[in-house]
Structure formats: structure tokens, C-alpha cells
Amino acid sequence: MPDPSPVIRVAAPHEQRAALELALRPLPAASRGPLLDAVGATAGHPLGPLDALLVAVERERVVAATWAQPSPGAAAALWPPEWVGARPPHASAVELALVKGAAAACDAAGIALTQALFEIADDPRIAALQGARFREIAKLRYLGRTIRAADSPTAPDAVLTFEPLTQRDHSRLKRLLKRTYIDSLDCPGLDDYRDLDDVLESYRATGRYDALGWQFVQQGGDDIGVVIVAEHPDADQAELIYMGLVPEARGQGHGARLIKRAIRLAADYGSDQLMVAVDEGNTPARRAYERAGFASWAKRSVYVRARDVAG
């Protein structure tokens, strides 16, 4: 008699720890533990910590798992299905059911955007995401640069001025961010999926939030751009979360000045490295980073699913 099809369902309490460890298997063990310990630290998020932890069960044994992890800004990060042992012949149907189950849980919670990353372009699990209405929006290149003593100059920029964020600047920042997204080459269209308050919440939750790392870029007293850098003290790294210019300020060499400012902020934090992710299709930005001494260390494809296209 052929084996019955696996049962797809939300993980039962006694299965949760094993299911999470399976779903997070791509992570190094040292990173997996702290993330598991922090699972319950998402109070107030519309999606419960384990509401979208889906398992495939055969003979009362978990054989595969996927997890849509609650993320800041009413979003979720999907960990693609992982199998106990080798990927079996019937994997595709099971993976599709797992991803659809996780997506349904996100929809029920009102999650606006669910995102997944793949390092391998022909990963067979991508078919499950496509079947659940995820679509590829970008190929990201991850770059890094070593911070040196010379990266802490005392002279101000001769062309631009930089002003740190204050509590009263929230509306000003939202207006400026919206302008910098116009005709952007970085993940074009992504801002259509989420509102700016959610975007800003996700930025603040990256690394250690410090308003001094959030800076308005001005020329002649006018706001023309934004630079946002966060510190990751546990890794001795800083991350350039976002930089952008309004359309009328582009093509004037300001991008290099913003990168230089981000490097300066990383140096002020005492970080050893500054990391950034850039859309591979954004050739001007990639070249500007490379001229500033950044080197590529990884590539990933970004897939997203918006709640309003579910059906």
C-alpha cells in the first residue's frame, strides 16, 4: 500500500521546538539559538509568533516545516520549507501546501507583506512560493567594506550638510522618504506594498536604533536625501539600511557623498565593517559602492507576497 500523503497543519505545541529548529536549519547554530529564544518577544504583532509555523506530518512524525516569522512593521519573513533528510519525490506538492498554509495564516492576521530570500536562483522550492503568489522583485547583492582610521575625518562636507533625526521630524522624514522612492532603481515598486510607518518601524528594528544614525541630507537648506545607518554591536558591524536622493538631486555625484557619510557614521560607532544590500539592477549604486571600496560577498533573490493579491 502506498504511504499516505503527509498531513499539513499548524505545528502542535509539542512539535514547535523541533519544527522551528528544522525551519531555521540554514542558519548557523550560533545564530539559531538566540532567534529561538526571542520567538516570544513580538508582543503586539498582528501575527502570533508561531501562528504561521506549518508542518508536514507522516505517521505522527514531522517530516518538513516552514515558518512565516513575524517581522517589524506588520510584515513577515518566510523561511522556505525544510525537510528531515533528503528532499523526497513528492516534495513539490507538500512544499506548496506548507507555503500556502503559512500565507493563509499571514492573510488572516492582516499581514501586508511576506518576504523570502533565496541564495540559489534555481532552488526547487521557489515553485512553491510562485504557486502561493509570491513574485521575484529583485536580486540583491550584499557588499561590505572594512572601516579604517582614516574614515573619521574632521572636516565637514563642502557641498552637503547632514542633520540627525529628532522626535519632531517623523512627518518630515515620511515626506522625504516618499520622494526618494520616486523612480528608484532599488527594488522598484516595493514601496507599493507597505505604508511608510511600517517601513520606518522595520528600519528602527534593525540593529541598535540610534537617531544619530538617521540623517537628513541637505543642500542650500533644502532636504534632498536620507542616510540611515544602524549599529550591530554584537557583530562589530554597522549596516547602511537605506540611502536615497530625491529625483532632482540625482546625477550630481551626491551618491558618493552619502556613502562617505555612511562610512563616517560606521567609524563613529567603532564598527569594523559597514554592510549594505543593493539591487543588482541598480548599476549606478553598485559602481558607487565599489569605487568606495565595497566588495561583494553574497547574492540573494527576493520574493514577496502582498495580502491584496491573495486569492
UniProtKB/TrEMBL annotation:
Matching Pfam families: Acetyltransf_1
Listed EC numbers: 2.3.1.189
Keyword hit for Chaperone: no
Keywords carried by this UniProt record: Acyltransferase, Transferase
Top-tier EC class: transferase
Any one GO molecular function term: mycothiol synthase activity
SUPFAM superfamilies with a match to the protein in the record: Acyl-CoA N-acyltransferases (Nat)
Residue span, N-acetyltransferase domain: 160-311
PROSITE patterns xrefs: GNAT
Alphabetized PANTHER family for the sequence: L-2,4-DIAMINOBUTYRIC ACID ACETYLTRANSFERASE, N-ACETYLTRANSFERASE
Name listed for the protein in its UniProt record: Mycothiol acetyltransferase
Organism of derivation: Botrimarina colliarenosi
